[in-house]
Structures are given as structure tokens and as C-alpha cells.
Amino acid sequence: MIPVQWDRRIRRATELASTYPFASEGLRFYARIATFQKNMYAEVQRALGDSSKIPASRPLRDELDFFLLLPHFSPFLAVVKQIAPAPMAEAAARLAQKGPAGWQQAIEEFWQGEPGLSGAANISGLGETDDRNSSEEISSDRLLAWIFLQPYAEYLAGHRELTVVDGTPSTCPLCGGKPIVGVLRSEGDGAKKSLICMLCAHEWNFRRIYCPACGEEREPQMAFYSAPEIAHVRVDVCDTCHTYLKSIDLTKTGLAVPVVDELATIPLDLWAREHGYEKLQINLLGT
Ligand SMILES: [Zn+2]
Ligand SMILES: [Zn+2]
Predict the structure, then answer these.
(1) How far apart are CA 46 and CA 43, in angstroms?
(2) d(CA 177, ligand 1 centre) in Å
(3) DSSP characters over 273-287
């Protein structure tokens, strides 16, 4: 059975597309990408099965099954070409031209490299960033490989023996990926914080006041901002390294799906960038 999270993401994206008109184009695109990812997850599950567990001692990114993945890459690029805004569609067309050797290289470079995409990018054509020059910093191949590999990574993360994690690491304890969004859930009288991995979607506990980019833990340096019209999403900023990451406050609305609500709240990204903060990890819309 395919885990329910895919349908939940697709449904939430469709809902929010009508609630937040400024994000509707991006969310509709995301809903179609997530539909591809859901099907991809099903393919991975069919090929690798549902029973055996990967030993916790084996690093998640030691796995990379080209035999399974590669046949799906060209269809993936075809979907992106069809549904993505112009810059990303063109990037997919360029990568499609490179053939299997080029596809394998793109997948391998992302999987084996430093897992993270930072800086302002506008490769999707949806990110409302005004910093066009830095879009070159992001390789479009990396962005495409990331989107393609997410369901595979998520399958691997969900089929591992449980890992005992020491402390509160700033990157994913399973795959080393950067956090893409924070989550606040109620606990006792307050809320506990966790982070969600950009690649494998694993969620791990984190400290309330601690910068995942530089380790700052002094309270005056760590602040958060929110806007009344999007009260359940806040921008956690660090005034030491000028990095930010959004957190979704599930104590304010249980309906939110963190990775989707993160995509939808573009005005908060604009606010943060106007105030000199750089995002710890861009999302798949390049925002
Ligand atoms: Zn991860
Ligand atoms: Zn910091």
C-alpha cells in the first residue's frame, strides 16, 4: 500500500491553490509533480518490496539502484517538460537530450554530493525572487535530480531499522540532507519542534532555540516572525548567520501539511529576503 502522505500533499496543494492566489500556479505545478512522485514511490515499492528492512548501520545514501531508477528518468523529464514553467521545462529538455549517461551522471552527482540547494533560485520560473543572478548558482540538473530522487529516498527512509540518534543534529540523521521546514507540535503546555529532511522526508526532533545553520543558541539572536493572515507559518531567523527557515505551527492548524504549506507561503520568503536573510534550503519551486 502506498503511504497516505502523497495523497495528503496533493490534496493540500489543491486546497491551498484556491486559498492563496499568489501561490496557485506553483501549487498546481507541485500537485502534478507530487502525483508523479506518488507513482514513482509505488514503482520503487513494487520493485523493492515492503517487508525487508535496511540495516540502520548502512548509510542511506550507500543505496542507489540505477537498474530500478534509470528507466523512470526519461518519463520524468517528459512530465516536467509538459507541466513546468518555461525555465524548468527548458532545463528538463536539455537534460533529456543528454541521454542515459548524462541522466546517470545527474542522479549520481546529486545523490553522492552535498545534499542541499541554497541561495535564491528562479529555475522553476515561479520563485518570486528578484535576485536573478544567483539562479546560475543552482544547477538545474541538481534540482531535477532532487525532485526525481525524493520518492526513492523516502522509501529507503521508511524501510530502515530504527536509528538511535544522539542529540539534535542539524542535518538529517538518515541521509545527511538539510532540513526544508520546521514543525511545531503540541507537547504538554507548550510545543516541541522538529525538522523535516529535504530529501527523504524523515522528521527528527530539534531544539526550539537553536540555529540549524550555525549552531547559535543565544535567545536574542534567534527570533521568529509571522504575518497575521498566515498565522500558522512563521519565519525562524538567525541574526548571527542571517539564515532563515520556516516552521509550520501544527498547534494552530492541524490541517497543514508542512512541506506544502512551506511552498504556499511565498510572502514570508519575500519578507525574509527583503530583511537580509537567506534561506537555509530552497524548496522545489526554487523559492
Ligand atoms: Zn533525510
Ligand atoms: Zn545561524
Answers:
(1) 5
(2) 5
(3) HHTT-EESS--TT--
